Amino acid sequence: MKVAAVQMTSGVDVTANLATARRLLAQAAGQGAQLAVLPENFALMARRERDKRAIAETDGDGPVQNALAETARDLKLTLVAGTFPIRVPGEERVAAASLVYGPDGSRLGRYDKIHLFDVNVPDAAESHRESAGMVPGRGIGVFDTPVGRLGVVVCYDLRFPELFRRMIDAGAQLFVVSAAFTVPTGEAHWHLLLRARAVENLCHLVAAAQAGAHENGRETYGHSAIIDCWGRVLGELAAGEGVVTGEVDFERQARVRAEFPALEHRVVGRTMV
Questions:
Q1: Residue at 130 is within a domain
Q2: Which residues are catalytically annotated?
Q3: Residues 6 or more apart in contact with residue 240 via CB below 8 angstroms
Q4: Which pLDDT tens digit goes with each residue over 5-20?
Q5: What is the DSSP annotation of 104-117?
Q6: For 136-192, what is each residue's pLDDT tens digit?
Q7: Is residue 272 part of a domain?
Q8: Residue 49 Cα distances to 96, 111, 145, 218, angstroms
């Protein structure tokens, strides 16, 4: 099965971002991809938190969600669109929702980013407080789709291996990551974390990233990639907008897990000395 990660340099114009996303998704479909993944903040790299609130939609309805469903249907793609701000009842803050659509345009799932990026980046003049404008999710995102059972995560989630173990225990066959890694953290850890999550779970992974200098002053790392269950990089786009594709082989993944049964050797609930 061919899969695609879409890399974008999203700006502050939602209409322009959606047009870019559709163009790149059409490119992915034209290359034979059955699954395509959009990066975090694909529709808006906001200048201020209130800008996210201004474009936030009610869950299940709105121009951006309708456009995503239409694009998936027109291109006959299973589409993971992460993330887009969805209103949370009783909250001024929004949820950072990654939305999953089937090739018929139906919505198959929604995952809200659990781990919010509230950090001061070491050795860099960067400080982030996502919780100021976002409500953290509460449940894992594992969804049945026509291309397999997907485990969906967003950006900072990549640093929490227990989340990936929970998705494996829930039957995930393929990990999907939407991200907007900063340049300092990307240079230090992006490839390391992607390959580690794939290797320790013997699971293919598709990672779609933001890349380059954005209108809001941020700079993101890029390097969207497809990783196989043995940690090999099957395809990568280092910089710029575009599409990277790769082949996911579930039969090989099952064979690797049978021959190298690390998942069965997990020591859970025992006293370790």
A1: yes
A2: 40, 113, 155
A3: 7, 9, 211, 212, 222
A4: 999 999 999 999 999 9
A5: TS-EEEEEE--S--
A6: 999 999 999 999 999 999 999 999 999 999 999 999 999 999 999 999 999 999 999
A7: no
A8: 12, 20, 32, 14
